[in-house]
Write a structure and sequence with these properties.
The chain is α+β, with helices and mostly antiparallel strands and 953 residues long. The chain has 14 helices and 53 strands. Strands 1, 2, 3, 4, 5, 6, 7, 9, 10, 11 and 12 form an 11-stranded mixed beta sheet that branches. The longest helix is centred in the middle third of the chain and has 23 residues, at 465-487.
Length: 953
C-alpha cells in the first residue's frame, strides 16, 4: 500500500463535532456533530413513564418524572417555598441535597384553572447555574389546601466540581468564541470580500454571559459567550451560544439561538432590549385607543384591523382592543413595525435604528399594506393571542400580557429574506420575493413564530438536537392548529397538515409547503443525525417525527382535547433538555392528568408508537460502515488518518471528561491507545501520518502544539499560540496549521519543522494577507490565500510553500474565482476546491495541478454531470474524497454533509462513499480508497470507516 501521508486533512472550518442520543449526553456530549437534544437522559435507556408513577433519570438519582401524587404541603407559603419544602421532605425520593433558594432558584410559578400551580426551579451548583438543570413541581391549591401532584425534569446529582472559579479570562473566552464562530460560518471556502472592501475581517462580536455548568459527567465549568454578527455567505443574522471550557479555553459547545420557520436563513435567539418607543406607557389623555379599520389579506379576504390614533391624529398599527374598558393603560398590546428594506441582521436581538410602526393614512388599508405583509402579520397576531387566551387562559406569549411586536419586511444583503424568526422578544418576517411572498402571509407561520415565544416562557426547550426538534414540532403543531381555527379549515381537509403552503407566488399548496404534519411517513427510522452547523442538529429535519405523532393524536382524539394535552405537557411537564422519549412521557402524563380514558390513552401511546418514538428507538438506525470507535462524545474536533493509523479525540461515556487523543489502526484490528496526557486540558485536532501523532492542547493561557512518535516515546511541545487554531496536519518532519489572529480578525498558516525547531508563517503574516486550509507533504505546504494584487485588490489563490527553500509556487487559479477551498497535496500534485460561478446552485469544482503548477485538470466540474457541492476534501495517491453540503431551503438526508470519492484524474465520476443517513463529517483519506470519518447516523458520534466506496445510494 502507498503511504496515506499522501493526503490532506479536513478543512479548518469543518463544522460540528457529532452528537449523541438525546438528553444530557445528547446536546452536551454531543454538542458536536449530530443529533438529539442537549443533556438529559439517553433516549435508548430512559424507560417510558406510562407504566409507573416514577421514571428514573439517567445519570442522576433524581427521577425524571413522578406522577399520581397527592401529598400535602403548606397552603400559606409562597408556591416556590412550598415546592422546595416538598423536595426536602421527600429527600429519599428526589435526592436533592440543597433545596435552598440559592441553589434551587425559582424561575416563576404559573397558575391555571382548577387551582393548578406549576413551579419551575433552576438548579445551581455552588451558586452557578446548571444548563438545563430545571425541575418542575406541580401542585393544586383549593379549599384552603395545597397538594403536590407530580414532578418532572432534570436535576443532576452527579455534579462534583472542585471549584467554580474560571481559570480562563473573560477576554480569552470571548476571543476563542469569536474564532470558533468564524470557523463555523466559513462554509469551507475562503472567499474574496465584496468589491471595494480591503479587509477580510470577520464580522462577529462576543458578549460574555454568566459562568455556566454543563451537566456532563461530574460537570464542566464554562464561560457562556453570545456571539452575534452577519453570515458572510448570505447576510442573514447570526447569534451563536458558545460555551468555553473555563479551565482550558476550548469551545466545548456551540449552537444557534436563532429560531426560524424555515431551515435556512437565520433568526435570532434570546435577548433584546425594549422597543424603541412604548406608547403604552406614554399615552396622552384623549388618544383613541382603538380605531376600527380594515385591510385585505394576501388570500383576498377582507378583515377587520384594529389601529390606534395618537394625539397628533396619526394612525398607527397598534392594537389595544383586548384591554379592559376600565383599565385602558394596562393589558396586551399588539404592534406591527415597518421594517421593509432593513437588514435581517439589524433586527436580530436588537431593534433597527429608527424603525417605526406602520402608519396608514386612513383606517382602510390599501394594497401596499397587503403586499408588505402588514395586514396578515397584524391580523394573525391577534388570532394567536385569542387562541391561547380562549383555549388555555394564557395571557400573551409570556402569560403576563407582555406586548407582542412584529417586524415585517426585512431583507438579507438587500435581497429577499425568505424566512421568519423569533428572537426572544419579537417576531421578524422576511420581505419575500421571487417565488415567495412575505413570510407573514401564512397564518401558520405567524402562529409558529409566536409559539416559539410561548415555548421560551414555558419549557424553554434548547434549540438544538432533539430538544430543538421538539421546540420546532410544538411550534408547528400549534401554528397549524391556529391556522386551521383562524381560517375555518377542517382537519379532514387533505391539505390541513401543511405548513407554509400559502407562501408561494406560483406553486400550489402541496408543492409550496415546507412541512406536512400529516405525511404519514416520518418516523424515528427517518431520523437524520446532523451537526449543529447543519440545521442546528436537525431541529427542522427531525421535527415532523414528533409533530407527526401529535398530529395523529389530534386527528383521533379531537382538536380541543389534544390541544389541551399538548399545552399541559409543554407548560407543566417539559424542561429545556428533554428529547423525544421525555416528550412522549410528558404528553402521556398530561393526558392522564386531564382525565383521558383507557381508550384515549391508547390513542396517545399509539400515535407515538406509529412514529417510532419508543424506548430504544435509536438502536434501529442502521449503517453500512465499520465502527472503529463508538460514542466518542466530542465537539468541534475531527479525525486524522495516514499510514494505516487514525488519531481522534475522545471523551468519556457521559461527555464530561476533557478530551484526550487516541491512536488506532484504520483496519480496525487491535485496541486504540491513549497518546495524550489526561491533564484536564482539551487535547484536540489530532492528526497522524502513520509515524507521528500531533494534536493541540488547549490550556487557559495558550494552545500548545504537541507531537509524539506513533511507536511510542517522548511527547514534545513543538509550538504554542494564544488564540484558536484549526486544520492541524503532519507529514514527516513538518507540521502546519491555521492560526486565528484576533488582532486583525484573519487567519494565517503557521508551520513547524520538528527536526530543526524552525517556526514560520507561509505568507509572512501581514494584515492584508489571509491564508488557511493547509495540507503538507515532503516539506511542501499547500494552502489557500487571499492577498492583494499589484493594484491592492484582494485576489484568491492556491500556493505551495517549500519550507526548505522558502520559495512559493502559485497554482493556476483565475483572478475571477469567487471562492477557494481545502487543499490536498500528494506525491503527484495539488488538489483544491474552486468556486467560479455565482449563478449556479452552489456547486464548486475540484481542481488539480502538478506541484509546479503545470498540467491543470478538472477532477469534478462545477456544473453539469458529476458536479458536487464541494465543502472540503482530502486525498491519497489513489483517491480524492470530497465532503459535500447541499444548500437548500429544506432539510433532508441528501442535504446533510456526505462523502464522495473520485479518482485523482476524475475518470469515472464521483461515487458515494457511504449510504448512511446521518451526517458524515471530517472525512479523511487513509491508504488506497479507505476513508475514516465521524458519523452521526446512530444518534451518537461514532468513528467509522469504509475501505471502498458504496457507489450509488
Amino acid at each position: 500500500m502507498r503511504s496515506s501521508a499522501r493526503r490532506a486533512v479536513r478543512s479548518s472550518g469543518a463544522r460540528g463535532g457529532i452528537a449523541v442520543g438525546q438528553g444530557v449526553a445528547a446536546l452536551l456530549a454531543a454538542a458536536g456533530l449530530v443529533m438529539t437534544a442537549l443533556p438529559a437522559a439517553h433516549a435508548d435507556t430512559a424507560p417510558a413513564a406510562v407504566a409507573s408513577d416514577a421514571t428514573p433519570g439517567t445519570g442522576t438519582d433524581t427521577p425524571s418524572l413522578v406522577t399520581g401524587l397527592n401529598e400535602q404541603v403548606s397552603a400559606t407559603a409562597p408556591a416556590a417555598d412550598a415546592a422546595r419544602g416538598h423536595l426536602k421532605a421527600k429527600a429519599g425520593r428526589y435526592h436533592i441535597a440543597d433545596t435552598s433558594a440559592k441553589d434551587l432558584a425559582s424561575l416563576g410559578t404559573t397558575t391555571e384553572k382548577g387551582g393548578k400551580e406549576t413551579v419551575r426551579l433552576q438548579q445551581k451548583y455552588k451558586g452557578v447555574e446548571v444548563l438545563g438543570g430545571q425541575y418542575v413541581v406541580r401542585m393544586t391549591k383549593k379549599d384552603g389546601k395545597r397538594a403536590v401532584t407530580g414532578t418532572s425534569g432534570n436535576y443532576f446529582t452527579e455534579l462534583k466540581l472542585d471549584t467554580v472559579t474560571p481559570k480562563v479570562s473573560e477576554k480569552t473566552a470571548v476571543e476563542r468564541a469569536v474564532g470558533a464562530v468564524a470557523a463555523q460560518f466559513d462554509r469551507g471556502l475562503l472567499r474574496a470580500p465584496a468589491k471595494g472592501a480591503k479587509s477580510a475581517k470577520a464580522d462577529f462580536t462576543g458578549t460574555a454571559g454568566a459562568v455556566t455548568i454543563l451537566p456532563q459527567g461530574s460537570g464542566v465549568l464554562t464561560r457562556h459567550i453570545t456571539v452575534t454578527g452577519t453570515d458572510p455567505a448570505d447576510g442573514s443574522p447570526v447569534q451563536q451560544e458558545v460555551y468555553i471550557d473555563a479551565h482550558s479555553g476550548f469551545p466545548v459547545m456551540q449552537y444557534s439561538g436563532i429560531q426560524t420557520f424555515g431551515a435556512t436563513g437565520a433568526a435570532a435567539g434570546a435577548t433584546q432590549g425594549a422597543a424603541a418607543s412604548d406608547p403604552a406607557s406614554t399615552l396622552p389623555a384623549g388618544d383613541e385607543l382603538v380605531v376600527k379599520g380594515s385591510g385585505v389579506r394576501y388570500n383576498g379576504q377582507k378583515v377587520d384591523i384594529n389601529l390606534y390614533r395618537d394625539i397628533k391624529g396619526s394612525l398607527q398599527m397598534i392594537d389595544y382592543s383586548r384591554r379592559a374598558a376600565d383599565s385602558p393603560l394596562d393589558g396586551p398590546m399588539i404592534a406591527t413595525y415597518d421594517a421593509r428594506g432593513r437588514e435581517a441582521s439589524s433586527a436580530s436581538g436588537v431593534w433597527p435604528v429608527g424603525v417605526k410602526y406602520f402608519q396608514p393614512a386612513t383606517p382602510e388599508l390599501g394594497e401596499d399594506y397587503t403586499n408588505s405583509g402588514a395586514v396578515d402579520a397584524h391580523w394573525a397576531a391577534g388570532k394567536v393571542y385569542d387562541y391561547y387566551k380562549n383555549h388555555f387562559g394564557r395571557k400573551s406569549l409570556d402569560d403576563k400580557d407582555g406586548f407582542i411586536y412584529s417586524l415585517v419586511g426585512v431583507v438579507s444583503n438587500g435581497r429577499p429574506y425568505n424566512n421568519a424568526f423569533w428572537d426572544g422578544t419579537k417576531m421578524v418576517y422576511g420581505q419575500g420575493g421571487g417565488d415567495y411572498r412575505t413570510f407573514s402571509a401564512d397564518t401558520d407561520v405567524v402562529g409558529h413564530e409566536m409559539t416559539h415565544g410561548v415555548v421560551t416562557h414555558t419549557a424553554n426547550l434548547v434549540y438544538a438536537g432533539q430538544s430543538g426538534a421538539m421546540n420546532e414540532a410544538i411550534a408547528d403543531y400549534f401554528g397549524n392548529a391556529i391556522d386551521l381555527e383562524a381560517n375555518g379549515q377542517s382537519m379532514d381537509d387533505p391539505d390541513a397538515g401543511l405548513l407554509g403552503e400559502d407562501l408561494c407566488t406560483t406553486l400550489g399548496p402541496r408543492e409550496c409547503a415546507l412541512r406536512d404534519l400529516n405525511d404519514g411517513a416520518t418516523t424515528a427510522k427517518n431520523f437524520i443525525g446532523a451537526t449543529y452547523g447543519g440545521d442546528n442538529g436537525g431541529v427542522h429535519l427531525n421535527s415532523t417525527i414528533f409533530s407527526g405523532s401529535l398530529w395523529d393524536m389530534r386527528q383521533d382524539l379531537g382538536a380541543e382535547f389534544a390541544d389541551q394535552i399538548v399545552y399541559r405537557a409543554l407548560s407543566a411537564y417539559m424542561t429545556p433538555l428533554d428529547g423525544f422519549t421525555e416528550g412522549r412521557a410528558a404528553v402521556v402524563a398530561a393526558a392522564k392528568e386531564l382525565g383521558a380514558t383507557k381508550a384515549q390513552l391508547k390513542i396517545v401511546t399509539r400515535s407515538f408508537d406509529a412514529h417510532g418514538i419508543v424506548p430504544g428507538w435509536e438502536k434501529a438506525l442502521g449503517v453500512d460502515t465499520d465502527t472503529l470507535m463508538s460514542k466518542v462524545n466530542i465537539y468541534n474536533t475531527g479525525v486524522g488518518a495516514g499510514g494505516g493509523k487514525y488519531a481522534v479525540s475522545r471523551s468519556d461515556a457521559e461527555g464530561g471528561e476533557p478530551y484526550s487523543v487516541w491512536l488506532g489502526n484504520t483496519s480496525g484490528k487491535g485496541q486504540p491507545e491513549l497518546v495524550s496526557a489526561n491533564n484536564g486540558d482539551y487535547n484536540v485536532y489530532a492528526n497522524t501520518d502513520g509515524k507521528t501523532v500531533v494534536w493541540a492542547d488547549y490550556g487557559p493561557d495558550a494552545v500548545r502544539i504537541m507531537a509524539r512518535p506513533v511507536k511510542g516515546g517522548l511527547t514534545k511541545m513543538i509550538d504554542g499560540i494564544g488564540s484558536n487554531i484549526s486544520g492541524l496536519v503532519v507529514d514527516g518532519d513538518y507540521v502546519a496549521y491555521t492560526a486565528f489572529n484576533p488582532q486583525y480578525g484573519v487567519t494565517n498558516v503557521r508551520y513547524v519543522n520538528m527536526k530543526t525547531g524552525e517556526v514560520g508563517l507561509v505568507d509572512g503574516g501581514r494584515p492584508a494577507r489571509v491564508s488557511g486550509l493547509p495540507s503538507v507533504k515532503d516539506g511542501k505546504i499547500a494552502y489557500v490565500k487571499l492577498a492583494p494584487d499589484a493594484n491592492g485588490d484582494p485576489v484568491l489563490g492556491v500556493d505551495v510553500f517549500d519550507a526548505a527553500t522558502h520559495t512559493t509556487t502559485s497554482m493556476p487559479v483565475a483572478p475571477e474565482v469567487m471562492g477557494v477551498g481545502q487543499t490536498a497535496i500528494t506525491d503527484d500534485g495539488v488538489f483544491w476546491i474552486e468556486d467560479d460561478d455565482v449563478t449556479d446552485d452552489g456547486q464548486a469544482a475540484v481542481r488539480r495541478a502538478n506541484l509546479d503548477g503545470t498540467n491543470p485538470i478538472t477532477v469534478t466540474p462545477e456544473a453539469g454531470e458529476g458536479s458536487l457541492y464541494a465543502y472540503s476534501l482530502s486525498a491519497s495517491d489513489d483517491a480524492v474524497n470530497v465532503s459535500t453540503i447541499l444548500p437548500a431551503t429544506w432539510w433532508a438526508n441528501d442535504t446533510m454533509m456526505k462523502l464522495y470519492q473520485v479518482a485523482p484524474d476524475g475518470k469515472g465520476g464521483p461515487q458515494r462513499v457511504s449510504c448512511n443517513r446521518g451526517e458524515q463529517a471530517y472525512g479523511d483519506s487513509d491508504e488506497g480508497q479507505r476513508v475514516v470519518w465521524l458519523d452521526g447516523t446512530t444518534g451518537y458520534t461514532n468513528l467509522v470507516k469504509r475501505d471502498r466506496p458504496a457507489g450509488k445510494c
